[in-house]
Recover the amino acids of this structure.
C-alpha cells in the first residue's frame, strides 16, 4: 500500500494510504468522526487536501480503496471503467481536475462524454477540495435526461416527487395527499408512496390504486411504491402494474447485503419492470435512494469515509439506468451529519458527484427532529441545489411526512424555487397542469384559484 | 368601494382533511405558506425537539408489567446520556458492562433459554413507549401465552437502539427477540412506537435479518393490529426459522384498505 505525505514549512504530514488520505481530506462531519477516520484537526485536514490535490487521477484505477476481490461494487467500478472516455483528463491530478472542471473546456457535451470515464472515487476526491460554489457551478453544467412517461432533467426544469404518505396506508388518506400535491403542481418525477408495511398484498393494492388514479386523470407521470426490491419483483410476478421499481442502495457490497440486495437482484428487478413496457416516453424504470452514512450504519464501510462510500452508490445506480436517484441527505441523523451546515454541504457534494457520474440526481432535502437543523437550513440547501440544477426534490404536504417522521420540502417550497429561478416542471406534466386547469394558461406559472373540473367531480360527493 | 382583498388564497379541498392528518389544504400567500400554518409548524418542531430529550419513566413501566405477573429487568446501554446516545449509535447498540453482567446472571438461572424475549427501549421517543408499550404487550402476550410460548423476563433498556436486542436475546438464549422502541418523533407524532423482530439474535446481526412494524400509536396503527401482525410474524419465524427480507408479512390487511377504495377513483 502506498503511503502519501505533504510537507509544508517543515511539517511533514504522512497518510497511511489513499483511503486514509481521502478520509482525512473530507470536510468535517460527525459520521467520519464516529468511524474514527477523520482528520484530528483542521490543519491536518487541509494538509490532506493539499496532498490529495497532487494525486494523479489515474491512481484511482490502480489502487482500489476497497479490494477488488472482496467487493462487487469495486469490481463493477473497475470492470466498467471506460478508458477511452477517461482520456481527456487521464493526465491530470485531482487538483488539476478541479481547475479543468471549472474551466470553459468543461461544458455540457464534454462532461457527458467524460462521465463513463470517471470513477466514484475520482468524483469524491475532487469534491473534497471544492467549495460550495465550485460544487454548484460544475453540477449546473452537467445534464442527465431520463424518460418513462415524461422527460426528466431538461435544462430549466425542476421536477418533484409527490410523496403522499399515510401512516396506515389508508387509501383516501393517500389520495387526499395526491390531490393536494397535484393542485400545487407536484408529481412529475414520480407519485411515490412509502408503504407502512412490506406486506405483498398491501403493496399490490397500493400499486393498483396509483395506476388507477394516473389512468383515470390521464396524468403524464409515473408511480412507485417504495418497498423492498424483492417485494416489487413478487408484485410484478403477481401481475401488478408496476411503473418504477424502488430500492435503497449503498456503495459497498456488504452494505448492500445489509439492505438484502446485490447487483444480480437489481438486474433481475430492472428486467422484470422493463418487460412490462409501461413507459410511453422511455425505458428508465429504476428509482434509487442513497445517503451518506448508510455503509457506516451497517458497519460495512471498510474504514472508507462516508462521502466516498456514497459516491460509490452512484456507480451502482448508473449501471441500471435509473429514472431517478436521490440522496436522502438529512434523514439518517446527527451521528452522520450533525447539523444544518454539514447537511447542506453533503447535499451539494452528493448532487455534484451524482451529476458528474451521469446519474439523474435529485435530493430529499430533509432533517430529523434529533438533528441540529431547521427550516432555514432547508431553505438554504433548496436554494443552492435549485441553482445547481438539481433534477428533482420531494413534495410533502406542509413539509411534514406523517409516516416517516421527518421534515422534507413541501409543495410550496418547490413553487418558491421554481418562482425565484424561473424553473418549470417536466414538459409533458406542465402541459397537463395547464390543460386540466391547475395552472392558468400563459407563460407565467400562476396557480388557478378554482379546483379543476375532474377533481371537482371527485370531491362533490364528500361532505 | 371594494373591500380590501385577503392576501391569502384558501384551497377549495378542505373536505379532504377528514382523511388524513397530513398538512394538506394549507392555502397560500402567493405560492408560499401563509403566516398561520407557518407558525404552527414552528411550534410543532419545537415540541418534537423537546420530545427527543424527554427521559423514560422506568418505574411506572416496571410496576405496570410486574402487576401483570411479568418479571422485569431494567438495563442501560453503553451510551451514558442523551447527547452521547445521539452521536454514538454504536454505544446505544450495546449494554453497559454492569447491565451485561446482570443479564448473564439472570440467564444462568434459566437453562434451556426462551422461545421469545421482549426488549423495551426508549429509542428516540420515550413518549412512544410510555403511551404504547403496555397496551401493546397486553394484546400480544395474550396471544402468545395462549400459544404456549416460553417468554423471557421483560427487559427495559435506557438509551437503547434496535440492535441492543441482539445482545439481550443472545445472552438470554432466546430464539426470537422483539424490540419495542420509540421511533424518531415526527412533527405530528411524537409518540410513535416501532417493533423489530429478529430470529436467532446475535450481536452483529444486520437490518436485513429483521422484520419491522412501525407507526404504532393512537392515531396510527392500533396496538391490536400490531399484535396481530407480530403474532403472525413470530409464528412464521418459528416455523421457517428466519426473519428479515425472506419473511414477508402476508397477514391479511383489513378490508377497506385491502380494496384500495378512495374518493378519486371508480366514480
Amino acid at each position: 500500500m502506498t503511503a502519501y505525505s505533504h510537507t509544508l514549512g517543515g511539517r511533514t504530514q504522512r497518510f497511511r494510504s489513499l483511503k486514509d488520505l481521502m478520509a482525512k481530506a473530507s470536510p468535517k462531519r460527525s459520521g467520519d468522526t464516529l468511524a474514527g477516520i477523520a482528520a484530528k484537526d483542521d490543519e491536518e485536514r487541509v494538509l490532506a487536501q493539499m496532498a490529495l490535490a497532487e494525486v494523479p487521477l489515474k491512481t484511482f484505477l490502480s489502487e482500489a480503496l476497497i479490494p477488488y476481490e472482496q467487493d462487487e461494487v469495486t469490481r463493477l467500478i473497475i470492470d466498467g471503467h471506460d478508458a477511452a472516455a477517461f482520456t481527456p483528463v487521464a493526465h491530470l491530478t485531482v487538483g488539476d481536475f478541479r481547475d479543468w472542471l471549472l474551466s470553459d473546456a468543461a461544458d455540457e457535451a464534454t462532461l457527458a462524454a467524460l462521465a463513463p470515464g470517471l470513477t466514484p472515487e475520482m468524483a469524491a476526491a475532487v469534491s473534497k477540495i471544492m467549495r460550495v460554489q465550485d460544487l454548484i457551478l460544475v453540477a449546473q453544467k452537467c445534464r442527465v435526461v431520463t424518460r418513462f412517461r415524461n422527460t426528466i432533467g431538461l435544462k430549466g426544469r425542476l421536477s418533484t416527487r409527490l410523496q403522499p404518505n399515510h401512516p396506515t396506508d389508508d387509501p383516501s388518506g393517500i389520495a387526499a395527499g395526491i390531490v393536494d400535491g397535484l393542485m400545487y403542481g407536484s408529481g412529475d418525477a414520480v407519485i411515490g408512496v412509502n408503504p407502512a408495511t412490506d406486506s405483498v398484498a398491501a403493496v399490490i393494492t397500493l400499486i393498483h390504486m396509483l395506476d388507477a388514479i394516473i389512468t383515470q386523470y390521464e396524468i403524464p407521470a409515473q408511480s412507485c411504491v417504495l418497498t423492498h426490491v424483492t417485494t416489487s419483483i413478487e408484485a410484478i410476478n403477481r401481475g401488478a402494474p408496476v411503473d418504477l421499481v424502488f430500492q435503497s442502495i449503498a456503495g459497498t457490497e456488504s452494505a448492500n447485503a445489509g439492505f438484502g440486495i446485490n447487483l444480480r437482484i437489481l438486474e433481475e428487478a430492472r428486467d422484470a419492470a422493463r418487460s412490462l413496457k409501461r413507459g410511453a416516453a422511455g425505458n428508465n424504470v429504476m428509482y434509487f435512494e442513497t445517503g451518506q452514512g448508510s455503509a457506516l450504519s451497517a458497519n460495512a464501510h471498510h474504514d472508507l469515509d462516508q462521502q466516498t462510500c456514497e459516491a460509490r452508490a452512484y456507480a451502482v445506480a448508473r449501471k441500471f439506468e435509473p429514472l431517478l436517484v436521490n440522496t436522502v441527505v438529512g434523514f439518517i441523523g446527527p451521528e452522520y451529519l450533525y447539523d444544518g451546515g454539514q447537511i447542506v454541504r453533503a447535499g451539494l457534494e452528493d448532487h455534484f458527484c451524482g451529476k458528474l457520474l451521469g446519474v439523474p440526481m435529485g435530493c430529499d432535502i430533509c432533517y430529523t427532529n434529533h438533528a441540529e437543523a431547521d427550516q432555514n437550513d432547508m431553505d438554504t440547501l433548496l436554494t443552492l441545489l435549485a441553482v445547481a440544477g438539481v433534477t428533482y426534490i420531494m413534495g410533502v404536504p406542509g413539509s411534514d411526512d406523517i409516516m416517516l417522521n421527518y421534515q422534507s420540502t413541501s409543495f410550496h417550497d418547490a413553487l418558491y424555487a421554481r418562482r425565484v429561478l424561473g424553473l418549470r416542471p417536466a414538459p409533458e406534466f406542465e402541459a397537463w397542469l395547464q390543460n386540466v386547469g391547475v395552472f392558468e394558461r400563459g407563460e407565467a406559472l400562476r396557480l388557478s384559484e378554482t379546483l379543476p373540473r375532474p377533481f371537482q367531480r371527485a370531491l362533490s360527493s364528500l361532505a | 368601494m371594494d373591500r380590501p382583498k385577503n392576501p391569502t388564497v384558501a384551497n377549495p379541498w378542505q373536505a379532504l382533511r377528514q382523511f388524513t392528518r397530513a398538512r394538506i389544504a394549507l392555502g397560500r400567500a402567493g405560492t408560499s405558506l401563509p403566516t398561520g400554518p407557518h407558525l404552527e409548524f414552528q411550534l410543532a418542531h419545537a415540541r418534537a425537539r423537546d420530545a427527543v430529550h424527554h427521559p423514560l419513566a422506568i418505574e411506572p413501566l416496571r410496576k405496570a408489567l410486574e402487576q401483570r405477573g411479568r418479571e422485569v429487568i431494567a438495563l442501560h446501554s453503553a451510551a451514558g446520556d442523551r447527547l452521547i446516545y445521539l452521536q454514538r449509535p454504536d454505544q446505544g447498540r450495546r449494554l453497559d458492562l454492569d447491565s451485561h453482567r446482570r443479564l448473564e446472571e439472570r440467564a444462568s438461572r434459566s437453562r434451556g433459554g426462551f422461545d421469545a424475549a421482549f426488549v423495551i427501549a426508549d429509542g428516540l421517543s420515550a413518549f412512544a413507549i410510555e403511551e404504547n408499550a403496555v397496551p401493546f404487550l397486553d394484546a400480544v402476550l395474550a396471544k402468545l401465552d395462549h400459544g404456549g410460548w416460553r417468554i423471557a423476563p421483560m427487559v427495559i433498556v435506557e438509551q437503547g437502539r434496535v440492535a441492543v436486542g441482539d445482545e439481550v436475546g443472545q445472552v438470554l438464549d432466546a430464539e426470537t427477540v422483539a424490540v419495542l422502541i420509540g421511533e424518531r418523533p415526527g412533527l405530528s407524532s411524537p409518540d410513535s412506537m416501532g417493533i423489530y423482530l429478529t430470529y436467532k439474535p446475535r450481536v452483529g446481526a444486520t437490518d436485513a435479518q429483521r422484520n419491522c412494524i412501525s407507526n404504532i400509536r393512537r392515531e396510527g396503527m392500533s396496538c391490536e393490529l400490531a399484535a396481530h401482525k407480530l403474532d403472525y410474524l413470530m409464528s412464521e419465524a418459528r416455523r421457517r426459522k428466519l426473519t428479515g427480507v425472506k419473511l414477508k408479512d402476508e397477514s391479511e390487511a383489513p378490508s377497506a384498505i385491502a380494496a384500495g377504495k378512495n374518493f378519486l377513483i371508480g366514480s
